[in-house]
Amino acid sequence: MTKVDSSLKWDPVSKEKYEKMITKIPLFHREIAKQVVNKKAVINAKERGAQAVEEEDIVRAFLTEVPMTFYSLMVRLFDEVGFNYKDYE
Predict the structure, then answer these.
(1) C-alpha count within 13 angstroms, C-beta hemisphere, residue 66
(2) Do the beta carbons of residue 14 and residue 54 sit within 8 Å?
(3) pLDDT digits (tens, 9 = 90+) for 46-73
(4) Which residue segment(s) compose the domain that 62 sits in?
């Protein structure tokens, strides 16, 4: 199971989708994706003044932190795990 930043609560449904998505990322990119997306999702939530990391924070983190070279893979994985990314593009 993916370890997420514990300095802020994570919405359980969003966290489950995030963890499922991380497992679908190719192994050689997985660890760096976990690090950068986890960190940025927490920052996004804190900037919103939220009490928890939510889907919006995670999707925005993927879109800003993962190189656009992997955009088509991200979109496919967003669909597979049920993230509604279109609202945050």
Answers:
(1) 27
(2) yes
(3) 999 999 999 999 999 999 999 989 899 9
(4) 9-88
